[in-house]
User: Fold this.
Amino acid sequence: MTSPPSKAPSAAFAELIAEPNLAIAMAIASGTGKLLLDRPDDLEVQTKSTATDVVTLMDKRAEAFIVSELGIHRPNDSILGEEGANQTGTSGLQWVIDPIDGTVNYLHKVPHWCVSIGLIEQNTGEALSGVVYVPVLDSMYISSRGLGAWVIEQGMPRRLQVSDCTDLSKALMGTGFGYSSTRRASQARVLQQVLPKVADIRRLGSCAVDLCLVADGVLDGYYERGVNAWDHAAGELIAREAGAISSGLFGKPIGNDMIVVANPAIHGDLVAILEANQADQD
Ligand code: LIP
Assistant:
């Protein structure tokens, strides 16, 4: 359970955590993290789109918990979840949730997984608030539109800022791969062109956490083809509020075909390489 900050937070942080919907998402993410850390021996693993696209009992249990909590605190909002939650509301606001982003990591006990809860304006699709909670590390990344991005680590708040890397050849780049062999072959084709042009690649297994690492300047950029709204709804806002530039390719916004999020100094160069190699195509 994330404990309250142990020292007086700055005025900006105080303003951010006073935002009521963010506070609701933080409390729900924290409770979901506790639930997920109490893992049963049998995770009742099933597969979805392919044999490598796994889902566990805990993905479903966590999503049910989040939906139940949102029903109590925000009964008129819509909800879209990776594991099937799809509720229509009347408020014009939609919660976009991934109960476990990085399910393969959760299954294999790799720490790089999270609870991702984003809030968007349904008419515009604009992100309003985002929470990405990494239970194993007790790190909660948070943001609301126009109020900056912060991480609370073991109760200590710290403001997030993207890296100052100006040279793509010195950039540490995050990416990920899909679940179909056709998609993976195409992603490997693109990786062959990207890898020689950057310092190194990290495939850590969670879009949402990768986006928060861009926000924190740990990764200089991240790109991936095939991620869904629930993977990036929260993390993309957090990264932008920390100074990142976010886009698709060829002037398009982020989407299932491609998401590119990086510090402003290298975002354009990364997009150019991806466009030159039709990275938004299989
Ligand atoms: C994951 C994404 C990640 C991608 C993985 C997987 P999931 O989402 O967050 O970026 O590379 O293949 O799709 O399935 O763990 O919610």
Notes: The chain has two domains: 9-159, 168-276. The chain has a mean pLDDT of 96. The longest strand covers residues 93-101. The helical segments are 11-17, 20-37, 57-73, 103-107, 181-194, 207-215, 229-241, 264-276.
